[in-house]
Prior knowledge:
Pathway: Protein modification; protein glycosylation. It comes from Sapajus apella (Brown-capped capuchin). The structure is a single chain. Helix content is 44%, strand content 14%. The chain is α/β, with parallel strands linked by helices. It has a single domain, classed as NAD(P)-binding Rossmann-like Domain (Rossmann fold), CATH 3.40.50.720. Helix 3 (77-91) links the parallel strand 2 and strand 3 (96-100). It is globular and about 50 Å long. It binds NADP nicotinamide-adenine-dinucleotide phosphate.
Amino acid sequence: xxxxxxxxxxxxxxxxxxxxxxxxxxxxxxxxxxxxxxxxxxxxxxxxxxxxxxxxxxxxxxxxxxxxxxxxxxxxxxxxxxxxxxxxxxxxxxxxxxxxxxxxxxxxxxxxxxxxxxxxxxxxxxxxxxxxxxxxxxxxxxxxxxxxxxxxxxxxxxxxxxxxxxxxxxxxxxxxxxxxxxxxxxxxxxxxxxxxxxxxxxxxxxxxxxxxxxxxxxxxxxxxxxxxxxxxxxxxxxxxxxxxxxxxxxxxxxxxxxxxxxxxxxxxxxxxxxxxxxxxxxxxxxxxxxxxxxxxxxxxxxxxxxxxxx
Length: 310
Ligand SMILES: NC(=O)c1ccc[n+]([C@@H]2O[C@H](COP(=O)([O-])OP(=O)(O)OC[C@H]3O[C@@H](n4cnc5c(N)ncnc54)[C@H](OP(=O)(O)O)[C@@H]3O)[C@@H](O)[C@H]2O)c1
C-alpha cells in the first residue's frame, strides 16, 4: 500500500464511521432503538471473547441476565477477575467465569479450547467480539500483523476448534450460534491478497478494515458450509454501530477529542442493550448467514454480496 492509498484508506474509514453516526442520530430522532426482551436461557452456555470490557462486557451481562453460563475469554487476569465479580453481582448469576485466552497467540487459543473442553459442557453461543483498532504497526506472538492476526486469524482458529462442540450442542429448532462482531468499516475495506500482513506500507485504518472484511467473508463461508452439512449451527455477523468504548484509544488525537467532547451525543452507550446484546437474539433461531447492521436491520443475506478483492 502506497502512502497515498494509506491516506485514502483512512478517509474511507472515517467516511464509513460518519455514515454510521448519522444513521444512529436519525434513528434516535425517529424514536430510538427498541429495547429487546428475551426469554430466559438457563441451560445454555456462551463464550464471549473480550468480555472484560466494552461491548463484550455488555454482551456478557445480557447473557448472564438470561441465566446463561457465561465464559469470558480474555488476556488480562486481573481485569477479568474484576469483570467476573461485577457481572456476578449485577446479574445475580453465579455461572460467570473467566478462562485465559490471548487471541494474539495461537498456542493460547489451543490451550483455552483444551481447558474449555475439559469441562465437558456444551457450547450454544460463541461471540467473536475481542478486537483491537488502528494500533501502531506490531505483530502477534506468531508474527502476524496484529489486526489480521488477532481480530481475524485468532477468531478463525477459535471458531474452528470449537465447531465440533457447537455442532453437538445445537439441535433442531435450537441452533447453536456463532456471532461475529464486524464493523461498518468492512464496507470500505479491501483485501490486499498480495500483502495481507500490510508489510509493504502499513495503514492502521486499512489493516483494521481489512481484518473486519476478512471476518465477514469467513462468516459467510462458514454459514455456507454449515448449511450444506445440515448442521444445527448458524453463523451471523453484526455491526454494533459506533459505540462509546476504549477501542478508540489509538486514534488520532483530534478524533479522540471529538469522542471525548461529543461521544455522549454521537456514540451509542456501551451499556446499551441495543448494541451487540440486542443483536444477538433479534435474529430468530432459524436465521442464518445474515448481516445485522447497527440499527438492527438485516443489511444483506450472505449470498447477496461479493466484496471486491484486490
Ligand atoms: N466501539 C465501536 O464503536 C465499535 C464499532 C464497530 C465494531 N466494534 C468491534 O466491537 C468489538 C469490541 O470492541 P469494543 O468497542 O468493546 O472495544 P474495547 O472496549 O477495547 O474491548 C475490546 C475487548 O477485546 C479484548 N482484547 C483485546 N486484545 C485481546 C487479546 N489479545 N486477547 C483477548 N482479548 C483481547 C480487550 O481486553 P483488554 O481490555 O484486556 O485488552 C477487551 O475486553 C471489536 O471487535 C470492535 O472491532 C466496535
